Amino acid sequence: MKTNTTTRPQDWLEGRRLRAWELKAQGWRQRAIARALGVTEGAVSQWMKRGREGGVEALRRRPAPGPTPKLTDAQRTHLWALLAKGAEHFGFIGAVWTTKRVATLIQREFGVRYHPAHVSRLVRELGWSVQKPIQQATQRDEATLERWRQERWPALKKTRTAKLT
């Protein structure tokens, strides 16, 4: 059993597996290894099997693979270029990219459906940020609002009263 545990473990669980491998290489029995590391003999047995079949690397931490991405790297690059053209280029009113708009664009261009909540993660990975459109009433009159702020608001605004000591 050749042991190459010179590289540092990524976490304590990996360290424990590597330590079990080292102890086995020193001639320890599985029961003694289990007692020393505070695990079951079955766990040590599984680790030793993995070590025999795949070497020390088989005892290292493996990140969960997760699902395969729906868009390829080339499609993500193309999406970045599409976003750079602006939302109005694709028939949206206003230049703002919302998650729903990006999800619609992805479905139109690539035939892939994404939930808008996931689109925000995807867009951030591309170096963009999703925006929220400013929604204002169509009958909003800026001149009237400004006049109200100048004339009426000062009379309504509370002023700080001085403390009496």
Structural overview:
The structure is a single chain. The termini are far apart. The chain has 165 residues and is mainly α. It has helices at 12-25, 30-37, 41-54, 73-84, 99-110, 116-125, 142-151, 153-156. Among the domains are: 12-59; 73-125, no CATH class. It is built from eight helices and no strands.
Name the descriptors.
single chain, mainly alpha
Biggest sheet statistics: none
Evaluate the radius of gyration.
31 Å
The overall pLDDT, averaged over residues, is 86
Report the β-strand fraction as a percent range. Answer: under 5%
Number of helices: 8
How would you briefly describe this protein structure?
This protein is an all-alpha fold.
Helices and strands, with pairings:
Layout: H1 12-25, H2 30-37, H3 41-54, H4 73-84, H5 99-110, H6 116-125, H7 142-151, H8 153-156
